[in-house]
Amino acid sequence: MRVRIAPPWWFAVPAILVYAVVVLYPSIAGAGSAFTDWSGIGNAKTFVGIDNFKQLAHDSQALGALRNTLLLTVAIVVVQNGIGLLLALGVHTGIKSRMALRLVFFAPVVVSPVMVSFLWKFVYNPAPDAGLNAALGAVGLGGLRQDWLGNPSLALWSVAFTVIWQCAGYSMVIFLAGLEGVPAELHESAMVDGAGTVARFRYITWPLLAPAVTINVMLSTVGGLTLFTQIIAMTNGGPGYATDTLSTVLYKQAFVFGKFGYSTAVALVLAIFVAAVSFLQIGYLRSRETAA
Amino acid sequence: MALDQSVSRRRLLQLIGGASVAATAVGTLAACGGGGSGSSSSGGTLKVIGVGDQEAGLRKLLDTYKSSHSGFDFNLSFAPADQVQTALRTQLGGGNAPDVHVVYPGNGSAMSMAQLAKAGLLADLSSQSWTQKIPDGFKGAFQSDGKTYIYSPGSSMLGAIYNKKAFATAGVEPPTTWSELLSVCEKLKAKGIVPIALGAQTPWITQLIPYALVPGTVYAKTPDFDDKMLAGQASFADSGWVDAMNKYLELQKKGFFNDNPNGTTYEQATSMVATGKAAMAVQVSAVLGAFRAASQTPDDLSMFPFPATDVAADNWIPAGVVVGIAISAKSKKTDQAKSFLDYCGQQENLNTWAEAVSCVPLYGDAKVDPALTLFLPALKANKAVPFMDQRWPNAEVQPTHFAVVQELLGGKTTVDAALKKMDEAYRKKA
């Protein structure tokens, strides 16, 4: 019989101290500037109470960015995980090239998002004889040529596509890990009972994949809500404000407009928003896991 | 001293805190993970950071200064303008900026002389003798509260960089009035040449055509427009800016730009003009070097003032003091840095830098790049207007200008709504 001995609490003191100095203090002190008009440089700083938050509620640019952020997040969560799941199911079969395919689908994940963004900027070149437009022309679909990043109605979706292209392989790997955990005997006995592929997916694979779904939805939601790199690198929030997200707005407020106080207020709201969404999501998805 | 240190450390931690709140938001998870960049200063050498446009001049002077001053050494780095804005501001906020760093003249951006001087981050250069030679008209770009904080080699002209061969193919000459410009564009277009290359996906490019037009549509009639704006007696939406923006859109409607300007970058537009696929691009003379470098026949590239009206005498030109350098107030090598800036201020060295970046030297009668000849009469007649943002009161107007131009080109807003948005940004406090 094993006896569990709880370690003395003070064992944690060094870690707590380091955490307090490196994470807690700067975060709280930094959050304090959300209530000031600090420019980010110099000492001039006045306490303005909740003015920054009031301004945020009426800031049309931030509200537009919120809309873009939500649209992007929904698109990324649904499509990236949908494709990730299909890819996982595809490479989880007995096909010969499955290892090579896994590698190919996962490869974009290990490339820096900035590199991927610049690469796709070439692909999205609006000239009819370049990138994607040239490819469309070559297969006789010249009529579908677009100004992918320059058309304000299209730019957001072009960025979303790039993110999905890069990150679908990541979802695939997590689903694949989930699929490996589905016992083969369940499938075998279901097959004996005459269940088809769809029925087996619906009643065996899908419920047992619940933990993988939780992780994937969580990660892609947080990733979508905080999307920054690809937007700054591909469109810088443009054309106009068409692809601004909350992250790019807070970046611009701090480093372009020199409004660090206001930017911190945006960051604080975003952080609380992300935490709240994640909390609700994980609550729901976990209950689904136990139900399954 | 100890108190000083603890204060600055606290401020640094707060900055990191702000950044860490931001990082919670901005940094992405494993799949799309982010990263940070840092830099540290090494002892002994003068740390200098500039933007790409400055490289040709700044590097040349640092090299010659080093060769004539034993024991002097420098560590020079460059970055694109928007990256400098982020990295350098963070360093300034943390109190560890490079000894000598890039600063924009006048006011109107978060890295402008007036904004940084106000925060006490720049060393006062007023005691240097070259500062006495700054022409009166340019003092606003160099001085805040009567003290000089920035060195710049001179002024850059803004106009059309054009490909002479493309003009010859269409049998046209540089226009001097708006109507002539339209007919030149028409003829170029008929020859299958894109009349004006516009890479409006690169934000700062969006502003160049309005900057080229408003000296004629606004300042020729109201030379004190900036003062009136500051006093609240004028607005963008009720001024010659309307005419300028309408003309911008007229060029687009007539098909005088390349297709999809909002999806085209500065680099793509540059190569279009350099290769003769496009005939011209509205640009600052400081990038003439980049255009020449992209061309197989650099001598084919020259410049002319971009006409804004049909009255040739009203076609004033935009001429802005080019991006300069300043000394960090917190630098421990202030003496070394000041002596280098004093060296830059000597006529011969000023000319060297000015020539390297195709600008008109701040003072003295040096020869200028022949491509700028057509600008000199307006410059002599005092018909030059500094780049508009240099007198805008906060850092928000210029980015708003970029965004509304992209919206206009994308058909997402109207001239009136766009200019009202700029007015709104202008009225915000600094």
Automatic annotation (TrEMBL), chain A:
<keyword id="KW-0813">Transport</keyword>
<dbReference type="InterPro" id="IPR051393">
    <property type="entry name" value="ABC_transporter_permease"/>
</dbReference>
<protein>
    <submittedName>
        <fullName>Raffinose/stachyose/melibiose transport system permease protein</fullName>
    </submittedName>
</protein>
<dbReference type="InterPro" id="IPR000515">
    <property type="entry name" value="MetI-like"/>
</dbReference>
<feature type="transmembrane region" description="Helical">
    <location>
        <begin position="103"/>
        <end position="123"/>
    </location>
</feature>
<keyword id="KW-1133">Transmembrane helix</keyword>
<dbReference type="Pfam" id="PF00528">
    <property type="entry name" value="BPD_transp_1"/>
</dbReference>
<feature type="transmembrane region" description="Helical">
    <location>
        <begin position="70"/>
        <end position="91"/>
    </location>
</feature>
<feature type="domain" description="ABC transmembrane type-1">
    <location>
        <begin position="66"/>
        <end position="281"/>
    </location>
</feature>
<comment type="similarity">
    <text>Belongs to the binding-protein-dependent transport system permease family.</text>
</comment>
<feature type="transmembrane region" description="Helical">
    <location>
        <begin position="9"/>
        <end position="28"/>
    </location>
</feature>
<keyword id="KW-1003">Cell membrane</keyword>
<feature type="transmembrane region" description="Helical">
    <location>
        <begin position="208"/>
        <end position="233"/>
    </location>
</feature>
<feature type="transmembrane region" description="Helical">
    <location>
        <begin position="260"/>
        <end position="280"/>
    </location>
</feature>
<keyword id="KW-0812">Transmembrane</keyword>
<dbReference type="GO" id="GO:0055085">
    <property type="term" value="P:transmembrane transport"/>
</dbReference>
<keyword id="KW-0472">Membrane</keyword>
<feature type="transmembrane region" description="Helical">
    <location>
        <begin position="154"/>
        <end position="179"/>
    </location>
</feature>
<dbReference type="GO" id="GO:0005886">
    <property type="term" value="C:plasma membrane"/>
</dbReference>
<dbReference type="InterPro" id="IPR035906">
    <property type="entry name" value="MetI-like_sf"/>
</dbReference>
From TrEMBL, chain B:
<dbReference type="InterPro" id="IPR006059">
    <property type="entry name" value="SBP"/>
</dbReference>
<dbReference type="InterPro" id="IPR006311">
    <property type="entry name" value="TAT_signal"/>
</dbReference>
<protein>
    <submittedName>
        <fullName>Raffinose/stachyose/melibiose transport system substrate-binding protein</fullName>
    </submittedName>
</protein>
<dbReference type="InterPro" id="IPR050490">
    <property type="entry name" value="Bact_solute-bd_prot1"/>
</dbReference>
<dbReference type="Pfam" id="PF01547">
    <property type="entry name" value="SBP_bac_1"/>
</dbReference>
